Each structure stands twice: as structure tokens, then as C-alpha cells.
Amino acid sequence: MSGARKSDVVKLVCVAVAAFAFTFSLVPLYRIACEKVFGIRLDGSAVSESAVVPATPVAERWVTVEFDGSVNSKLPWSFRPNESTKRVRVGEVYETTYYAHNNSAVPVVGSATPSVAPARASGYFQKTECFCFTLQTLQAGETRDMPVRFIIDPALPADVNTVTLSYMFYKNDLATERLSQAPRAGALTTARATR
Predict the structure, then answer these.
(1) Which residues fall within 8 angstroms of residue 145, CB to CB, at 6 or more apart?
(2) Cα separation of 63 and 177, whole Å?
(3) Which one-letter DSSP state was computed for residue 34?
(4) Neighbours of 169 (CB within 10 A)
(5) DSSP helix/strand/coil, 58
(6) 191 C-beta neighbours (distance < 10 Å), count
(7) Which of 29, 60, 160, 187 has its CA 20 to 30 A from that of 13?
């Protein structure tokens, strides 16, 4: 093999190794961005209230929380907050609910993606319970109120007086497809057993 070909092979191997290292590092970077910057927990768990609620009382500080909700065009649901705003004291636990209704004639599985604005407030908005931690299944025509429990960390920057919590609901095609096939699989098994 000539020197030029060896050099090309070495370059290609280096590029492949660099690409692998870059791809491998994306997972922890993505986790850091979601959890630390945007306040989205990727492990599907809630923040414990004791981890956020201060042990000693904090100064009297109130913040307005605005609620927003929307659905992706592929999801045949109605989805909105049951209250548009709530005045909350930092360091205390509050709960709100979102209204969801499946407008279709079949069960549908959805997943919600939360976001907090302004972005610099996202690390101070802690959810201790949220429908966004798991997939949500609504039967045909079903209506449900979905709860969110949250705490605003007292360390929220002093110039942030309004925080907006938004959710976008998406259809989970794979889970919806599995759900639609489950009754057929059960009926097929029953039919075989009765033969």
C-alpha cells in the first residue's frame, strides 16, 4: 500500500473515531440541556418535594404562573389548561390540571412535551407530579383532567415575575398501533382456544 493510501486510511479511521466520540457524547449533552437548562426530566421521574421546598421559610415573594396547552395536528384531541393563570408563592407546592378529550372514535396514546418560559426560569420550575412523565391513553370519546404539581424554587431570579408552563401533546404512533392490535391478538387467541 502506498504512503498516500495509508494516509487516507488513517484519516478515514480518525474521522470515524471522532464521529463515534461525538455521537456518544450527545446523550449526556442532551440530558444536561433538557434537565438543567429546560427543566425536563428524561428519566420519567418526579422531583421530590422535600428536595425543593426550603427547610426554613422564605421571604414573601409571589410569582404569576401562566398555563398553555396545544396538540400536534396528528393528535385528534382537545387539550387545554383548566386555569389560565395562578398566583403562587415561591417555595410552596401547587397543583393545576389540564383538560384532555379524545375526539376520535378509537383509543389514542399521546405524550406531552413541557416547556417553561422564559428559558432561564426553567431550572427553577420543578414538577413533582406530571402527566408528562408517562404516556397517556384516552379511550374513544374519553375526557380526563390531568394533574401537575409544581414548586417554584425560591432562587428564581428576582426580575422574573411571570413564568409560563406550556405543553405540546403529540400522538405516539407506535403505542397507538400496539393498542389497536391488542384486542385483535386477544380475540385471535380466544378463537384458537375454542377450536
Answers:
(1) 82, 97, 98, 99, 100
(2) 42
(3) I
(4) 23
(5) coil
(6) 9
(7) 29
